[in-house]
Amino acid sequence: MAKKAKLQMTSPAAARGPNEVDARIAVGMFFTLSGTILSAFGVSTRDNADVYAKSLGIDVNLWWGLGLLGFGIVMLALGRRGQMKLEQRGR
Predict the structure, then answer these.
(1) In terms of residue numbers, what domain contains 44?
(2) Which of 39, 41, 67, 84 is deepest in the core (most CB within 10 A)?
């Protein structure tokens, strides 16, 4: 009881466990999945003019789906890059 355990100061990267996942990976997976579903809907309803009458004939579902898909892929790539950096610091 006389001697207390000495706390070691570690860097935040070293304090992280090996099971931590970058949040950008989860966000990227969500946007990639949403973009894929929306793009597929846009492609499947491309010939239906009634659906796109309010949007001046523009296939909004397809274009927004492709935008979401692109954003999701970028987030996945950045998240994977960050995850690799975390793994290298942990070694």
Answers:
(1) 22-90
(2) 39
Residue 18 and residue 90 in contact, taking contact as beta carbons nearer than 8 Å: yes
- Spatial separation of the C-alpha atoms in residues 44 and 52, rounded to whole Å: 13
What total number of domains does the chain contain? 1
3-state secondary structure 16-72: CCCCCCCHHHHHHHHHHHHHHHHHHHHHHCCCCCCCCCCCCCCCHHHHHHHHHHHHH
Mind listing the pLDDT tens digit for each residue in 17-44?
A: 556 777 889 999 999 999 999 999 999 9
**Does any domain span residue 54?**
yes
